[in-house]
What we know:
363 residues; globular; mainly alpha; 11 helices
Amino acid sequence: MGERIRRAGQVAWALVGLAVLLSLLGVIGWWLRVVWPPLILAGAIVFLLNPGVTALHRRHVPRVAGTALSYLAFFAVIGLTVLVVAPLAADQADELSAELPQVRADVERWINDRAEQSKDWVISFPSVGELEDEVGGGQGAGIGRTLDAARDVGERLFHVAIILILAPIIAFYLLVDLPRLRLLAEQLVPAEARDEVLVVANRLNRAVGGFFRGQLLVALIVGAMVSIGLALIDLPFWLIVGMIAGLFNVVPLIGPWVGAVPGILIALTTRDISTAVWVGAIMAGAQQVDNHFISPLVMQRAVRLHPAAVMLALLAGGTIGGFFGLLIAVPAAAVLKIVLGHLWHTYVLGEPLVRVEAAAEAD
Length: 363
C-alpha cells in the first residue's frame, strides 16, 4: 500500500509539472499561432503518406524517390478527381450563384412571414430588417461593411493560399528525413526510459495516423454516397451539397449535422418540404451506413473515445483553434487518453511495461 501511495504521489507531481509545461507551451504556441495551420496540414500529409513511403523504402527505394513517387500518386489522384468533378461542380456553382438572389429572397420572405405571425405570440421573432439593424448597425454602414468584408475575404484567401503552398513543402522534407528525426528524438530520451517512451510513441502514431487516414477515406465515401443519393432525387446542386457533406464529415459527431443544413435549405427554397424530408433521410441513411459499417471497418482501433469525451474535446478545440481546432481535437484527446492511461497503469497500479503493452494491443 505504501509503495502504491508513493507511486501515486510521483504521478501527481509529474502531472503538475506536465500541466505547467503545457501551459508555457500553450502561451508560446499562442504567440506563434500563425505557423500552426501549415504545420497541422503538413502533419496530416505525413500521417497519410508515410505508410506508402515506408513500404517503398523497405523494398530498397530511397526515401527521396519514395516520397516523390507518393507525391506524384497523391496529386495524380487529386488531379484526376478534379478533372472529373470540376466541370460539373463549376456548372452547378454558376447556377447556384445565379439563383442565390432568389434563394435569399425566399428565405427572407419566410423569415418575415414568421415574424408577422409571431406578433401576437408571447415571444416574437425579428424580421430581416430588424436582424440587419441589430447585426450590422443599419443601412448607413453598408458600404463600410462591404469594404471590411472584402478585405477580410482577401486576407483569408491569401492565408489559405500560403498554407496550401507551405504545407506540402514542409511535409515533403519531413517524410524524407523522418527516420533521422525519429532517431534523433530517441537519442534525446534517457536510455533507461527509452523502451517505455517507444511503446507510448508507437501507440500514439497508430492512433493519430489511423485517425487522419481513416477520416479522409470516410469523408470521401460519405460524400460520394450523399451525392449519388441527392442526384437520384434530382436535387439542384447535388454535387456541391455532397461535397460539403463529405467535407464536414471529417469533424466527428457534429460535422454530419452541419453538412446536412445546406441540402435541406436548398430543398426548402427550390423544391418543397417532401424533398427536404428526402434530403434528411438520405443524410441520415448515409450516416447510419457510416456509423455501423464504414467507420468500424476503416477506423478499426485508431481512436477509442466515449462520445461525451469527443463532444468536450470538440468544444475545447473549436473554442481555442476554430476549424483547425475541431480537426485536431479528437486525436489530441486520444493522445491525452493514451498518455494518462499509461501513467496510471505503469506508475499507480505498478503493472510491468510488458503487461501494459499487451493490454494496449488487445484493446
